[in-house]
Amino acid sequence: MRERLKKIPVNKYIDLALFLFLVTFPLYQKTYWIYVMSGIMAYMIFALSLDLLWGYTGLMSMGHSVLFGAGGYMVGISCAYLSEASWIKYDRLPWFLTPLSSEIGAFIMALVVPGIIALFIGLFMFSGKIRGVFFSLITLALAGIAELFVINQSTYTHGDSGITITSRTVLSNSADKRMTDFGFYFVVFAFLLAAYLLCVLLMKSRTGKVLKAVRENESRLQFLGYKPASFKLFIFVVSGMMAGLSGVLFVRVQGSINYTAIGINLATLVLVWVAVGGRGNLTGAMVGTILLQVAETILNSTFSNISADFAQYWKLALGVIILIIVFFIPKGFVGTLVEAEQRRKDRNRKERILRKGGVNGNG
Amino acid sequence: MADSKVLLEVRKLSVEFSGFQALTDVNMKIYEGELRVIIGPNGAGKTTFMDLVTGKTTPTAGRIYFDGADITKKSASEIAKKYKIGRKFQGPNVFDNMTVKENVEIATEGYEGLFRSIFFRKTDAFKERVNQILREIELYDYRHFMACDLSHGQRQWLEIGMVFAQNPKLIILDEPTAGMTAEETFKTGEMIKKLKGEHTIIVVEHDMDFVRQVAEFVTVFNYGRLLAEGPLEEVQKNPEVIAVYLKED
Ligand SMILES: Nc1ncnc2c1ncn2[C@@H]1O[C@H](COP(=O)(O)OP(=O)(O)OP(=O)(O)O)[C@@H](O)[C@H]1O
Ligand SMILES: [Mg+2]
Fold this sequence. Notes:
The complex is a heterodimer of chains A (363) and B (249).
Chain A: H1 2-7, H2 10-28, H3 31-56, H4 65-82, H5 103-127, H6 132-152, H7 154-157, E1 163-164, H8 181-204, H9 206-222, H10 228-254, E2 256-257, H11 264-277, H12 283-306, H13 313-328, H14 332-359
Antiparallel strand pairs in A: 1-2
Chain B: E1 6-17, E2 20-31, E3 35-39, H1 46-53, E4 61-66, E5 69-70, H2 76-81, E6 85-88, H3 100-107, H4 114-118, H5 124-136, H6 152-165, E7 170-174, H7 182-195, E8 200-204, H8 208-214, E9 217-222, E10 225-231, H9 232-237, H10 239-244
């Protein structure tokens, strides 16, 4: 038993602590913080989805918000349509959006549409052998394009004003159905837990190992008989659907969606969360998100309490702090911790091997 | 050897890199169960030859036949998976930030497709096979180390083990003993000799002690051409070979 406990890596204990913290959090907090933390948990799912792609597979998407926003907008458009928002001028949804007229349909579309977008981007990128920094730059450009696209398609997206969502439930889009902040918190929590477990299972599987191998040495993998492109496509679609889900949940919590949810701003934010927490261990993505978003919320309110002019500068301060963190611990908080543990274990193993060699003679 | 089957045959194989003729009209046959050693000075085209056989580079002229099939323009992954040619690269080429065991597991044959990998569960037979390979390459005690934390020689062994794990019909080893101590080199030679007969092997080496240890039949490359071919004793006496390659001995 003790041996088995010893084998569990340190970040799994952090995960456990984190989930215990989150599940008890609303029991002693005010509604405002329950609401804030619900949004952060939705963001944590988003960060996990990026970690699958960037941390594990080495595909640094700089436009992951496109998939988050695509999910969010599906629910947004559906909500606006069903509750007959005052700005709506159209009578019927276009044929490819007709599923949005049903409640279940909207939820499914919010997962499927980001999945399809990821599929097409992936097919284009991976069969064209676009790699490394080119992948990042193209995805970044896509985030910029998506932002302009939703502003221009104002018939359905209400342009840069965005859409207000009146319901807060998982599925329903009618205005009269609304869960409490407290209730919905646990809905988001359940989704986060499920997403986390899915990631753990997936990354423990052989597929997860192959994805790591793609990150480490993609061309070597081909000579072992693998087709890296199909693995990359697979994880991109999974990650895209997960990002879509997080978009839905976030929009439900926040009660609105606009172009910032699909654009470069959020795309960069999620990169920072994952970088600060640490890539490729799931824990880092979650810890980074919670740390930086809580810091942002607190700084935002303190600075705007001091004076309205001051409010603009806290972001600058936070930016500098983040730069310093990434500079001094490029592996992020959790990444550094995990590495230190691996080092210690390696040292112990080496000692054991040497001792064994001593007993057996030369070795 | 004449009566055994030809496993690999290349005919008039040539490749040109933007004007530079790296390989010219190479004809060669490798028989099933054979251990062939390829030698030749730096830049002779030995690695390029392997790049062509394993699908890394496509030839500008000539054909490659393996096990009766034309594999000339096949992709690297198809050549590895379907035709079963395994290759160790010059200078260790492994998955650095993964453990030694994970490296061997990834290489183990039979689960290369996406769907098979998703539904893969480690069986006892699979675990036993991985452990057996780890012991063969003397890295069992090091199985939880990251590949990047191994010594150079150990990394070479790891990659050799990965090629074993692929269970290929043809094993290609590009300078497997580079950077190894004399003792490690000798051990590697014994490892390779053990495989002889069961597997067909092509080895490229510079280390002449190693070549003498394992070689029977040798092919010599020079300036992208096949200079000489024959049993080691014969080739060693060939004045042309001595002039371009063996003179320092
Ligand atoms: N992709 C490439 N593009 C251009 N030139 C290349 C390429 N690959 C190999 N060459 C050239 O082809 C020649 C043969 O190289 P190769 O690596 O096959 O030699 P080698 O016999 O393996 O030598 P060594 O013993 O040093 O490994 C060299 O001059 C090399 O520079
Ligand atoms: Mg070479």
